[in-house]
Specification:
This protein folds into two domains: about 45 residues; about 60 residues. About 85% of the residues lie in helices and about 0% in strands. The longest helix has about 55 residues.
């Protein structure tokens, strides 16, 4: 065979080996990049769960809650009214007592 022909074949084989090495290193790089892909797919997976509730059920729960809370609110309002009435009576008593003390003080200063 001709030496230039052998030299050309040797160049082709060398180029083919370099291409093979480049492809091998590329595959290794890609493999390390996608090796964790199944785990990442699981980690990044989002489940959207929505539950639709009928409006009648919502109204039933609202009425039930209103039935539980309304009597408590009424009781608290009655207690507040009672406390306010008590405080108003106490205020009136204290004002009357203060006026009485003022009158007594004026009478005591007139005597002396």
């Amino acid at each position: 065979m001709n030496s230039s022909y052998l030299y050309s074949l040797q160049g082709c084989v060398s180029s083919l080996r370099m291409s093979n090495d480049l492809l091998s290193s590329s595959i290794a790089s890609l493999d390390s990049g996608v090796n964790d892909l199944p785990r990442m797919k699981t980690v990044l997976k989002t489940d959207r769960v929505f539950e639709v509730v009928p409006e009648s059920e919502v109204n039933t729960v609202k009425q039930s809650l209103q039935g539980e809370v309304e009597p408590q609110i009424i009781d608290l309002l009655k207690m507040a009214d009672t406390a306010i009435s008590r405080l108003e009576r106490r205020e009136k008593n204290l004002v009357a007592k203060a006026q009485l003390q003022e009158v007594r003080l004026q009478q005591a200063t007139r005597r002396y």
